[in-house]
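User: Please check token order:
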Amino acid sequence: MKIFTDFLELLLRLHFRRATGWVGYILVVAGIYLISPPFYVDLLNLLLEEIDLGRLPTQEPMPILSVLLIFPGVALVVINHLWAPKRKEVIGVRHNSLGTFPKYDLKKDLPLAQRFETYREIDVDHSDSYANGLLNDHRSVIRRLDKVPQELGGLLGSASGSLIAYYGLPHVPLAFYLGYLLSDNKFNVDLYELGNQTHRWNRLTAGKESLEVDSTLDQITPSDASGDIIIAFGISYPIHQAEIDELDIPDILAKVEINARHPQREVVTNLDQVEKICTEFRRALEETKNRFPNRQRIHLFYAGPVSLCFALGQRISERIDPEIMVYNFSAKSRPRYAWSLTLNSPEALSATFSSHVPQGADNASVQYA
């Protein structure tokens, strides 16, 4: 049934609305004609008899055929006038700080029906905040992200019901923070992921392919002490404890690991997998809140696809969850987690930037984050 309605909607959006209306009216008129000999045939016969041109043959009633024509005709007329969908828009959110892909790159990979919609794009490009792979202007990065909800709200205000599509290649803290700003109780966002082999943007939809996920949440021991919690996601690659230890984070109460059983690139292929990991993340936030009532903040480490990182950010609750520090990984920096963004802080309305490079050391490269 969904395939039929999608196809019908596509036809209507391709300006076949007028055609469906005319077809409906023709079917209705033909059906009425076949119910019984119409009165205008009798009038024509009277005229023909006056001028000695004979008579038109009498039409035999065909009620069954007339009903078969009238019913679909009425249905097409109703669809034409009442059900025909209003034209929507697609708003793409292009988010970039790592890749080199053109603007409007998503449009060619939208679902078929959406390619015929008006397409507008919000360009969240941080490439001008980097020089030689180094983040040299974190303030402009945060300001640009903070403007996105207002800009998106303005577009939605002028075209209600528009579809939102998120795609891009940003650093982990930036994707997570934008997801936090576009939380799922405010915006309904379609997620797209770039295929490593095809170089096409794939829309994540419901799928049958499952993902085996292991969590250490049930192994942690409750405590009333004051301190912080580590949550580490190893989805595309494992998170190594030795690299976290480089930060020398004090007062760690517990560490929760949420890992794909077999971490690899492109392991996340559908929305069901995203929802499974996001649900485990919410459970970790709720359980650590209950088991560690005096927790201060969450230190979040992530290795996985951009779409999932964005979706995880959407699951943060401003009212319930504590301050969260999201770390950026670079294989060429020391420490490897050289900087982070802190969000949901009670002391700041926006995200704040922290550098974890020892004072006096060279700036950390973020080119390979």
Notes: Residues 362-369 have pLDDT under 50 and may be disordered.
